[in-house]
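Changelog note: in this version the structure field was regenerated for every chain. One regenerated record is shown below for reference.
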Amino acid sequence: MFESANISRDNDTRLVELARDISTAQWAKPSLCTEWTNHEVLAHLVVGYGVALSAVGSAMLHHRGSFDVANAELARALAARCSPDRLLDELAALTRRPRGIGRLFPRRLLLGDHVIHELDIAYALGKESAVPMSTVVAVLNTEVRVPNPFVPAAARSRGLDLVATDANWVHQDGGPVVTGRAAHLVSVLAGRPWALSYLRGEGVAVLSSRM
């Protein structure tokens, strides 16, 4: 079994415990994921672990086949029905026993999705990343190596030399250099333009054009 299954479980367990300290007012604040509150981001994580394939298909049909719009609708609807505390309880249970699309989605990509969204919440609240560096590096390796139909991180990294300044991680692809903290590289490759200002090097302009 790929190691990310264990890393993903451990990371979600840590995330649930950490998120218990987020206040009701903080959950209601905008996240750094476009148009979602922190509460809706949390609901998205639960949707990704437990929604039925039929529900995804029905939502996509309603929105002319758009997975992104269907995904956003499902997350908002779940957030409207469930409090953050209830969603955290559900996430903790699904971490141990995924349902629906959560049983089919590759754990490499699930880990990346959850780390990216944790950063969306943490940085929106003015907090630093609490994700273990080994986990951040695992996500970076997935972003630059594994094609993802939902987050084109590998395409964004193509032709660039990426260097993490706070970890032993380098991605060399024979092009202009981008340097920065590992978590900021993760966020930019996931399409978060806010993190571009924390990066340095000639390749930053290239990344900016790929947002």
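Spot check on this record: The chain has two domains: 1-125, 133-209. Residues 107-124 form the longest helix (18 residues).
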